[in-house]
Write a structure and sequence with these properties.
Oligomer: single chain
Structural class: mainly alpha
Order of helices and strands: HHEEHHEE
Mean pLDDT: 80
Number of strands: 4
Strand order of the largest sheet: 1-2
């Protein structure tokens, strides 16, 4: 259970890193690759948890009210949801990783949508119609 909490903290750290270093050319590789690897690790942990059975994994975090901590438990149902959600995260990360090289500029106009293409001027978008 500690692995899942650490992986979630890593996902938050990658999000902050991606926001801070968005102009660097290798930032998308680090963000999308790190997110895909972390989601794969969580999905693998959940699949092993689901296949292995055994007692529920529990974790008590010292957050919240002082006399009521946050109690986390990973049972079979939560393992299924972890697998489904993280397979979606892996898919989205790989898609973003594959399309990140095609974007030439963060302010490039979305030419695929005709309604938005009308308001574009050169390489900058003017979202006012």
């Amino acid at each position: 259970m500690g692995l899942v909490v650490s992986a979630i903290a890593f996902l938050f750290a990658v999000a902050i890193l991606g926001a801070a270093a968005k102009r660097l050319p290798q930032a998308s590789t680090v963000v999308y690759g790190g997110t895909a690897a972390t989601c794969a690790l969580i999905a693998l942990w959940a699949a092993l948890r689901l296949a292995g059975g055994g007692p529920d994994a529990t974790l008590v975090l010292p957050v919240g009210l002082p006399w009521i901590q946050a109690h986390l438990r990973a049972d079979a149902l939560s393992a299924v949801f972890l697998i489904v959600v993280n397979l979606g995260g892996i898919t989205a990360s790989l898609f973003g990783w594959g399309t990140s090289g095609r974007i030439t500029s963060p302010t490039a106009c979305p030419r695929a949508v005709p309604r938005m293409a009308r308001c574009c001027r050169s390489t900058r978008c003017s979202w006012r119609a």
